[in-house]
Amino acid sequence: MRPDGQDDDMTVDPQRALVVGVDYGTLSGRAVVVRVHDGAELGSGVHAYPHAVMDSQLTAGPAAEAGEPVALAPEWALQVPADYVDVLKTAVPAALAAAQAEHGIDVNDVIGIGTDFTACTMVPTTADGTPLCELPEFADRPHAYVKLWKHHAAQSHADRINALAHERGEAWINRYGGLISSEWEFAKGLQLLEEDREVYDAMDHWVEAADWIVWQLGGRYVRNACTAGYKGIYQDGEYPSTDFLAALNPEFAGFVADKVEHEIGQLGAPAGRLTAEAAAWTGLPKGIAVAVGNVDAHVTAPAANAVEPGQMVAIMGTSTCHVMNGDELHQVPGMCGVVDGGIVEGLWGYEAGQSGVGDIFGWFVDNGVPPAYVTAAAERGLSVHQYLTELAAEQQIGEHGLIALDWHSGNRSVLVDHELSGIVVGQTLATKPEDTYRALLEATAFGTRTIVEAFTSSGVPVTELVVAGGLLKNALLMQIYADVTRLPLSTIASDQGPALGSAIHAAVAAGAYPDVRTAAKSMGKRTVAAYTPIEENSQRYDALFAEYSTLHDYFGRGANEVMHRLKAIRREARADRLGADA
Which ranges carry the Carbohydrate kinase FGGY C-terminal domain (predicted)? Predict the structure, then answer.
């Protein structure tokens, strides 16, 4: 109910009606105020998570406060849920203030709020939604914290799920390209059970962060259909059976019934109304519509008005998620999932992805660039990324003599194996930082082409690549992607694609549009064919891609398991060191 006592959110003049979209990324949350009738973005705000990503030690909890933080094993990635609430308290008011200062908006014209999140990012909670890490008895227990999407320490558990699913001939495994990821709900849940039974038993709900933040806003826990389908193995109205779960571990038999199963909300539907507490946090009117939660990648497709079959949307940031719609159901090897209505109603939503993209470039800049380059970049007033891109752009294709595999954070698609690792082949004493940097840029483009070819060969043709996310600002990278994939590359017209997409869902939840596809036509925008393939470049990249594919299959399909062995050796050595330090 609106503050004016009306039940219909659209009692506000449609020309003035506003919505707020909030995008929860890996390191920060962003809010944007959007005009409903045309998608104009009127103000934005950003809040960085104070605890960022905890991947080597807990920087929260009593032990950290005492100067003795709990160490984390390799492949862990945790977050603090209170950081997410701080986004509502900081970024949303900042966005409203900016919109008021620049456009004179009236906050009472806001009719809804929508949110999106990284996935699969899991929060263990009590029955009332309290995260277990906020309970004193669990404040120093790593398993009580949020497991971020890139927590890959459950790979062995995912391997067991996959092996058992194929052994039993479970039909649902084919909806996920034949493999379940270590990033997803069931693998992480099994790890929790087997590594910290006390925390597992104390947990009443295993909640996607996308749903947890909606719970905080609207006062009701509603599972969103997107993450339930893509990350929670919910297909055709069912989760994996109790028999299957018991075969993994008898104590895991009740995982679905006791920890996971809950009301599922459809995308674009209202999950609740903004509570008085959340209204005080955000400065928004109490009682406005709160949209069902969603995933950052999936909400971006309508923000780019790219929801028709053939349009693959690549959201390129720290990682890349590839989403697209299709008219028909097909099995695509290595896809992250296919869900009926997973992006928009009436179409099959497909997802694939690359676990590391911007993260790889950032890793190289932080760890592989000599001081002279940092100084030269500063003297030019450029970031190190910009400086390396400038140098790399001067090269002819293939001039560096390198091929890289973009697996520094494992491989999400099409191999679905987070025990894989990065590699650069061809380095010599003459290799320079810009050579390696360009090879890494190209490697991520080759990874996307591998995904595109898997879809096309499986009966889900890709005719347009639509890019969103922070990396679209790199023109060299965009041209490389167009040349490598041989596809016209369109770019989203918004710098805040996921937040805009969440705002679109908020508009639908508030009743401004009948469905997301209709809203996308008015509120979403893209620049069609902003980059097109250059045939000479594409021919050269065809030759390099052939070499990439050879290495991809050699290291990724079982011919040489050296990357798996090195990961095992690393874990053993790390465990020995931690044991010695204890």
Answer: 313-510
Q: Please compute the mean of the pLDDT values over residues 509-534 and round it to a whole number.
A: 97
For the record, the structure tokens of 14 come out as: 């449609």
Architecture of domain 9-291 in CATH? 2-Layer Sandwich (3.30)
556-572 burial, b if ≥16 CB within 10 A, otherwise e? beeeeeebbeebeeeee
How many Å apart are CA 289 and CA 44, to the nearest integer?
Answer: 20
Q: What is the DSSP string of 225-272?
A: HHHHHHTS--BTTBPSPHHHHHHH-GGGTTIIIIII---EEPTTSEEE
Specify whether the CB–CB gap between 482 and 531 falls below 8 A. Answer: yes
Residues written for the chain: 582
Residue 8 has pLDDT above 60, yes or no: no
CA dihedral 192, 198, 203, 208 (to 10 degrees): -20
**Confidence (pTM):** 0.91
pLDDT of residue 276: 98
Task: Tell me phi and psi for residue 433, to 5 degrees.
Answer: -55, -40
Average confidence (pLDDT) over 390-407: 98
Q: Which residues contact 279 (CB under 8 A, 6 or more apart)?
A: 285, 286, 287
Beta strand spans in 99-161 (E): 110-116, 122-125, 146-147
pLDDT in tens, 171-203: 999 999 999 999 999 999 999 999 999 999 999
- Tell me how far apart the 2 most distant CA atoms of the chain are, in Å: 73
**What are the residues whose beta carbons fall under 8 Å from the beta carbon of 483, sequence distance 6 or more?**
397, 445, 533, 534, 537, 538, 541
Pairing verdict, β 526-531 and 489-492: antiparallel
Residue 203 backbone phi and psi in degrees, to 5: -80, 125
**Collapsed DSSP state (helix, strand, coil) of residue 491:** strand
Check pLDDT > 70 for residue 6. Answer: no
Residues 160, 191: Cα–Cα separation, whole Å: 11
Domain 358-449+542-578 matching CATH 2.60.40.2550: the answer reads no
Which two three-digit tokens encode residue 496?
A: 């805040």
DSSP 220: -
- Tokens 């674009």 correspond to 268
Average pLDDT, the chain: 96
Q: Please count the other Cβ atoms lying within 10 Å of the Cβ belonging to residue 8.
A: 11
Is the predicted pLDDT of residue 1 greater than 50, yes or no? no
Whole-number Cα distances in Å, 522 to 38, 488, 508, 517: 5, 23, 12, 9
Spatial CB neighbours of 497, under 8 Å, sequence gap ≥ 6: 300, 303, 304, 315, 468, 469
- State pLDDT tens for residues 219-277: 999 999 999 999 999 999 999 999 999 999 999 999 999 999 999 999 999 999 999 99
Q: What are the boundaries of each domain within the chain?
A: 9-291, 358-449+542-578
DSSP state of 11: G
Q: How far is CA 436 from CA 21, 193, 471, in A?
A: 38, 42, 18
Tens of pLDDT, residue by residue over 285-339, are 999 999 999 999 999 999 999 999 999 999 999 899 999 999 999 999 999 999 9
CA 323, distance to chain mean position in Å, is 11
Q: Measured in whole angstroms, how far is the alpha carbon of residue 140 from the centre of its chain? A: 27
Q: Cβ(516)–Cβ(504) under 8 Å? A: yes
